[in-house]
Structure formats: C-alpha cells, structure tokens
Amino acid sequence: MISAAETCLGRLLGDAGRAELRPQAGKVFHMRAGRARFAFRIAADGSLRAVSAAVAPDASVDFVPGQPPQAAGDGALLQALGAAKEGIGPAGGFAAWRADAAERLGANLANWLTAEWGVLAGQDEARELAREARELERRVDEMLARHGA
User: Fold this and answer.
1) Whole-structure pTM value
2) CATH class label, 4-88
C-alpha cells in the first residue's frame, strides 16, 4: 500500500528528482519535522517507498523552525537528496502547487459559504444590494427636496 507521504513526495519529485535518486537505490533516509517522522527507501526507479522508522537510516534530515535543515549520514545520499529537492524548492513545482492549492481552497471556501451555507452574498447579490442602496439614496434625496430639507 502506498502511503500519502509517498504519493505527495513522488508527485513533487518528478522525473528529474527520481533521476537524481536512482544511483542511491536501496538506501534509507529519515526526515523529521517536529513530531512528524518519515522513513523512506529509494527504489530502483528513484521513487520513494515508505519503510518503518525502526529501519536504520543511511542518512537523516531534521527540520527545525528558524534553522537550516540538520543533515547527517551518507554524503552521497545527502547530495542526491539535495539535488532532487531543487525541483521542489521555491523555483519548482512545490511553490506552484502551494499557490494553486491556496487559490483553489479560497475559491471552494467562498463557494461553500455563498452557495451552500448562504453566509456570504455572491457577486450577483452584492450588485443587487448596491443597486437597491443607490435607488434608496435617490428616493431619500427626492423626498428631502420635496419637503425643503
């Protein structure tokens, strides 16, 4: 069974990332970020397969907020991981995916709040409210003019 972490990282790595990892096939690395712990073995095709965290790693990378990643272990594996991550860094697919995900989430949330829950007014309702407010303002001005105010 493929884990969610395998699926996400596999999509982010792409062909170039897998090509960087192929020479490291069979090696295991651990990634840690706070309480999250991930362990992967590099497959022959350069893809990642989740393994038990009990499997001894050839390399590990720890992510601590506000600090650069802390890496230890097999230098060749760490270099390959570094080269593979270049495709998912700010200039690569991850940044584009993150922006797209944020845009879609916002659109879906707005749709849900307007169409499903009716909490927010949609564009058509907002335009109608503005039109009615202008009409009310016009009528109040006419009434005040008739009564000499």
Assistant:
1) 0.56
2) alpha beta
What residue ranges of the chain have pLDDT lower than 70?
A: 1-3, 5, 86-98, 149
28-33 vs 36-42, strand pairing mode: antiparallel
On the 0-12 / 13-18 / 19+ scale of CB atoms within 10 A, 10 is: middle
Between the alpha carbon of residue 96 and those of residues 63, 83, 86, 103, the distances in Å are 22, 19, 14, 11
Q: In the chain, which segments carry CATH 3.30.1050.10?
A: 4-88
Q: Which residue do the tokens 């884990």 mark?
A: 3
Cα–Cα distance measured from residue 69 to residue 75, given in angstroms and rounded to the nearest whole number = 15
